Amino acid sequence: MAGVLEERAAIEREIAGRTVCAQLREAAERDPRAPAYSDPVEGGWATLTYAEARQRILEIAAGFAALGLRPGEAVALMMVNRSEHVLADLGAVHAGGVSCSVYSTFAPEQVAFVAGDVGARIAVLGGPADLARWEPALADLPGLRTIVMLEGAPPGDPFVTWDDLLALGRERLAEDPAAIDARWQAVTAEDVLTVLYTSGTTGNPKGVPLTHANVFFEVAATDRMTRLPERGTQISYLTYAHIAERVLSLYLPLFKLSHVYFCTDPAQLGAVLGQVRPVLFFGVPRVWEKMAARLRALLSAQPQERQESVHRAMAAGLAYVEARQYGRTPSAEVLAAYRRADAELLSIIRSMIGFDNAGWLATAAAPMPIDVQRFFAGLGLCLLDVYGMTETTGAFTANAPDRFKLGTVGPAGPGVEVRIAEDGEILTRSPANARGYLNRPEATADLLDEDGWLHTGDVGSVDEDGFVSIVDRKKELIITSGGENISPANIENHLKEHPLVGQALAYGDGRPYPVAILTLDGEVAPGWALSRGIAFTTLSELAGHPDVLRAVESAVAAANERLARVQQVKRWCLLPAEWTAETQELTPSLKLKRRVVHAKYAEVIDGLYRS
To answer: pTM for the whole thing?
Structure first.
């Protein structure tokens, strides 16, 4: 404990009094010509240097101030990942305001709740598709004075074009630069920097105010854990409403002078990876699952001899990564085998997928199937689990490149305390913890106890080496009619190991045994079918094909072989459609909304127990 507190004190001394505004100035002065942000344009990239970006941010701050934004007021943002999102976000902060990125998958009523709850005075939207989510709510948001549109601004109030905002800001900044200097210099470390809303598996989302001090502690701890180089390249593609993307590609780059490339279309992520070759890459488990499924599909299409050579090379890669767990050194034999496999094949594959420079690959936000982690380990890549929440400003436990254990979420981060409560709940305490929820005193009381411990709602354990493992959400454990406590996530991860299975939900609370609802992987299933000569026109049609059903039946049987008898799935159903955030079965960060699925498919579940 003494070591943890000493490390915490050292970080707090390092970050004392610092703000994002001052950090941006330091970055721009340290290397004004360093590339900061690149947007895709026809034939290449359009890039802003750190000096250019800061000047634009000050202009936007002046524009917001001219539009009436007062210190402490909120600017809501909804757009794809692009430089304008970061510039508007930091512009709000430099004007003394608070930024709030809103999930673009939120329904209009959720948008209305968030904008009203945070008290948004200005909104910055990408285009007509974003405006369509806001228009039904505008009548209920009298405090929203101005809507800035990057594209497609309707004429008249309350709409302002992005170009007009920039022109207004340039004019006001030239007239009175001291006014904006006074605004950002008045910002303190204890001021709220941003409010993020938990995507929520039930009920209205909860607003989490995070201060500059929260963010600086998290960034400093992340820097210690990742040991990333300065001026590295990285990709921004997950929404800035997600705490991981915000820490890694909005705040951390200000410390590391990183060059951030924006991937505005997730479908183009593979191509962007090949161009950027990032030094770090974070993806929620679903991103990694899809990437592994595509690579496996490519491998299965290769001649048998080629497949066998890849499998041998990947076996050497897996042995090498596994031998490095706990900071150990691989044996001479394992190291030699890996170096041969790497030189002959693995390094080529990593280069093909854009991970040849990657020093830190990570995942969080949902359970990571161990077979996906082992697949990438076979390529010589350490895909590291970290664990955190919006309420903890991101990761508070993390596997690190020099100290990791596959299948866990790593030890507590620098300066972070973690303990397991009597009922198995994971508790944490650190300066990265939020002070509570916005306008939700009762929820805040449930989140934080009087001793400052944050209650995660997750059940877990800590092994003798200090590595934390997540069992399940505290309130999502299945208790069968026989009294057995079962983790649905454990069952679901085994089911999803088959490339055809895109999503899975295990059910069995108060029932005699577990059942499962499954969906096909919309990217993998069509290729799987075509390679076997199966004719189809829609995914729904494919879900009913006898060959597909037989393959899924085999997947369920394979999963059951690895589960205890009381955990085994006795009945299952393959649905004709995928689950998405748009269809409400998944949160915007791709977590399963169990209660939504339970309600939406109640008849299907009941039918599985009748059959």
So the answer is: 0.84
